[in-house]
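cache lookup: miss for this entity combination. No prior model stored, computing from scratch. Input as submitted by user K.M.:
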Amino acid sequence: MTDTAHAGHLETATGLDNRKLAIWTFIGSECLFFATLISNYLVHKETWLTGPGPFPHDAWTSPAGKVFEPIIEIPLVTLGTALLLFSSLFVVLALANAQRGNRKGLLLWLGLTLLCGVFFVGMQVYEFTHFVHKGLTLKTNLFGGSFFVLTGFHGTHVTIGVIWLFTLWIEAFRGKIPPAKSLNLEIAALYWHFVDVVWVVIFPVVYLIK
Amino acid sequence: MDAHATSAEPERSHPSVGVYVRIGLVLFVLTALEVGLYEFTYGGHAGPAGAAIQPFFVPLLLLLSAGKFALVAMFYMHLKQDHRLFTGVFVFPLIIATVLILGLVVLEAYHFAFARAG
């Protein structure tokens, strides 16, 4: 952490900025929040009211004769995953530019981060709509419930991150994020990276492991 | 104890842009490996070799995922350079979270293997 980024913060017992410690504490609590949702998904993923089946990765016919087509679209989700990872790179590049006082670079990289975030949210909205049309809803079975709750809460976090970063982009556009205030962006970036690492876990657990 | 004793450990400067880009490329490659592993084990390109990989599929995926997680946390979230207190505040709940997930999965597996069988 640069000295300029910490300039002006109140003196603390640890010598660290309270806001940064607060966001790390929040992120720590979020680990437990997502751990409960991931556990819930893992425990219920094969719990079907009509018995377990290979769906959603492969086609499956229920004992009642209802045919469930495979609904997981790996290529689309992989693209979303890659863009979310790239957005983490873009936001650290935005932070590096903010710390150097390069406003154009800050706006460019933060703008690209926002685009990736918006694409990811759009991908999830499309996926959810597609699943509902294929017959999988929050109420279909325990798999549906735990899947939508886990990925839905993650999508909500991404949406909050997009809104947060957009407000910072506006601030940067108005020239209100000088190097001395780059900690404002660093805190938002930490939240964004956390949302990214949660997806790093969700992607293989939900989409790749059958 | 001196109130500022913990601040004696200085925070080092963040990595360079080159390091960020290299980490980004590694993350991209690891993601491609994950999807490739899936494709050759269960996906459209699955063959005899894929069947041989199946017992190692989940551990390999989790290993790749853990590698990506660690890279983002260490370099992009700056835990490698920042004060150790931040690492502690993050890692301690992360350990509890991991134990929670493993505990519930093992409990469920036990339930499937023994309890339901009577």
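stored under new cache key. Chain B touches chain A through 53 residues (CB under 8 Å).
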